Amino acid sequence: MTPKLATPGCTSCSPTPGDPQRRLWLMSTAAAGGVAAVSTAIPFVSTLAPSERARAAGGPVEVDISDIPPGGLKTVEWRGKPVWVLRRTPEMLAALQGHDDALADPASARSEQPEYARNPARALRPEVFVAIGICTHLGCSPTNAPRGNANPSLPTDWPGGFFCPCHGSSFDGAGRVFKNKPAPTNLEIPPHRYAGDTRIVIGDDAA
Predict the structure, then answer these.
(1) Reduced to 3 states, what is the DSSP secondary structure of residue 73?
(2) 15 and 25 in contact (C-beta within 8 Å)?
(3) Which long-range contacts (CB under 8 A, 24 or more apart) does 100-109 make?
(4) Three-state DSSP class for 87?
(5) DSSP secondary structure of 94-146
(6) What does the radius of gyration of the chain's CA atoms come to, in whole angstroms?
(7) Are 106 and 121 contacting, i.e. CB atoms less than 8 angstroms apart?
(8) For the segment 81-122, what is each residue's pLDDT rounded down to a tens digit?
(9) How many CB atoms sit inside 10 A of residue 167's CB?
(10) pLDDT at res. 177
């Protein structure tokens, strides 16, 4: 009996067993299937890998503070939040004293900060203040309000600090909230450490 050969152009026919055309057909089909599987797997695997931005969003941020003048403030981003780095002058440090009675939490007992920042200056080094620039009331962003500020919402003996225009919360130069204000706690201090005299790593705890 003569073997039946596949008719050229016939989609319903397949070569008979042992036919060279069948072997070629099977090899081509397997190769095409393998390419399809790989092309399908690559996009799937790539969706599992986090983007560079996602990895960076939660990682520490190193900040150069050499260009911050005395009394100057630099804002950087960490985990999508504004972080203030303020270089305090001796006068600004002196202004942190003498108004504990007016503060809601002068010792930062109820506020969020690393243990090494639980001190009157709320800092690793008194002259450099690092804080998250978000009001603890409803998440607004306070403004820098140095001593002598002409803001009519602040008292005439204002010692300097930060003022939230949204609902009137005010904080001293260490981010401590004044009494009878909407904000329930002091400004948050993020974990940070020094990587040298002029560099701070935000998001990584001090050793």
Answers:
(1) strand
(2) yes
(3) 102/178, 102/179, 103/172, 103/176, 103/177, 103/178, 103/179, 104/176, 104/177, 104/178, 104/179, 104/181, 104/184, 104/185, 104/186, 105/176, 105/177, 105/185, 105/186, 106/176, 108/176, 108/186
(4) strand
(5) HTTSS-GGGBS-TT-SSS---GGG-STT-SSBTTEEEEE-S-TTTS---EEE-
(6) 32
(7) no
(8) 999 999 999 999 999 999 999 999 999 999 999 999 999 999
(9) 12
(10) 96
Q: Active site residue: 99, 137, 167, 192, which one?
A: 167
Annotated active-site residue 137? The verdict is no
Q: At a CB cut-off of 8 Å and minimum separation 6, what does 49 contact?
A: none
Which two structure tokens, joined as six digits, stand for 38?
A: 């790989």
> How many residues are there in the chain?
207
The answer to whether 45 and 39 are in contact (CB under 8 A) is no
Q: Which residues partner with 203 through β-bridges?
A: none
| Cβ atoms of residues 154 and 172 within 8 Å | no
Strands 128-132 and 61-64, sheet pairing: unpaired
3: its two tokens: 């073997």
Residue of 47 and 131 predicted with greater confidence = 131
For 197, which DSSP code?
Answer: T
